[in-house]
Amino acid sequence: MTNARYPRHARIAVVEDHLLQRTRVEQLVAEDVDLELVFSGTTLPLFMAWVREVPRENRPHLLVLDLQVDRGPSAQPEVVATLVQGGLKVVVLSALASVPVVRAVIRAGVSAIVGKRDSEEAILEAVHAALRGEQWMTEELAAVIASDPDRPTLSGQEERALILYASGMTIADVAEAMGIGWETTRQYLDRIKTKYTAAGIPVKSKLDLGRIAVADGYIEG
After folding, report:
1. What is the pLDDT of residues 51-74, one digit of tens each?
2. Is the model's pLDDT at 22 over the cut of 90?
């Protein structure tokens, strides 16, 4: 799958907080003779700290990036935009838990979006397409990202609080995972309830929050 428009052994970095997923992406890269893994870590800030210390000639050509992590800071679209503007190709590997965040990183200039339900072959197709300077996305993903324009708009912090809380965490757990106070976490959840109630979808309990999180694609049922 060699292409003259990008170097053989294109250098690849991976940011993914789920160990099994990260290990498998590492294996896929290692098994491809045209790719070379130069970094693998759990969060974008760790990658940013690493890349600042690496000589320019050893920096990656492409980053495979998971947008949202369970513990630690998630990827910020403005940081992604800075990386893209610096010449780094970015392939997002996402569960699509937050469609608005995915839309934001598309606007930031990422080259490809791969869903975590897509095949392993799709990951490599997206990587090679991005390295060739192409855009890559399945029709199914495009439809998901384009859907539900009228649902309540949540901030990035509100989305993350909803995802963690609806996944089974307590408010204290969510606060710890997000690095914020208990009261701030409660305020995020109250704002979510208010926004959905104003949109005609009454939300009062944790069960209701779980229901809307599934219905709007923030978490899997």
Report:
1. 999 999 999 999 999 987 666 666
2. yes
Domains identified in the chain and CATH numbers? 10-146 (3.40.50.2300), 156-215 (1.10.10)
What confidence category does residue 213 fall into, taking pLDDT thresholds of 50, 70 and 90? confident
Q: pTM for this structure?
A: 0.66
Contact 143, 122 (CB under 8 A): no
DSSP string for the chain: ---TTS-TTEEEEEE-SSHHHHHHHHHHHHH-TTEEEEEEES-HHHHHHHHHHS-GGGS-SEEEE-S--SSSPPPPHHHHHHHHHTT-EEEEEE--S-HHHHHHHHHHT-SEEEETTS-HHHHHHHHHHHHTT--B--HHHHHHHHS-TTSPP--HHHHHHHHHHHTT--HHHHHHHHT--HHHHHHHHHHHHHHHHHTT----SHHHHHHHHHHTTSS--
Q: Which two tokens stand for residue 4?
A: 């003259």
